[in-house]
Amino acid sequence: MSKPAFRYSHYDLKEQRAGTVIEITLSAIANVRLMNGSNFERFTETLKHQFLGGVAKKSPIRLTIPESGHWHLVVDMEGHNGQAESSVKIVDAAPAPRMQKAPQETSAGR
User: Fold this and answer.
1) What is the pLDDT of residues 48-70, one digit of tens each?
2) pTM to 2 decimals?
3) 92-103 in b/e burial notation, b at 16+ Cβ within 10 A?
4) Long-range residue pairs from 77-83, CB within 8 A, at least 24 positions apart, any chain
5) Domain map of the chain by residue range?
6) Which of 63-67, 88-92, 96-100 has the highest mean predicted lDDT (pLDDT)?
């Protein structure tokens, strides 16, 4: 298994619900990649992977978790000079799905 030739910061976001918003604060232009577990594994093996995000030219930026599951965030400097300090926080956790009560039938006129 080969590792990427550039340094990166990894944030294990654990299990997150769809709709959760994360905020990433950066000290410089950097690449931001939000990935599920299988794509993060592909990233670490320098294989083609999919992610949300891209080059972050301003800070802070916000990304929304697209589907419930285990998520990873990577901040890296591939293609950029220097090193960026970064931090991540959850700013809007998606509410848990609510169970809806089935409408009760009424027996009027008995």
Assistant:
1) 999 999 999 999 999 999 999 99
2) 0.80
3) eeeeeeeeeeee
4) 77/6, 77/7, 77/8, 77/30, 77/31, 78/4, 78/6, 78/8, 78/31, 79/31, 80/28, 80/29, 80/30, 80/31, 80/55, 82/28, 83/7, 83/28
5) 8-92
6) 63-67
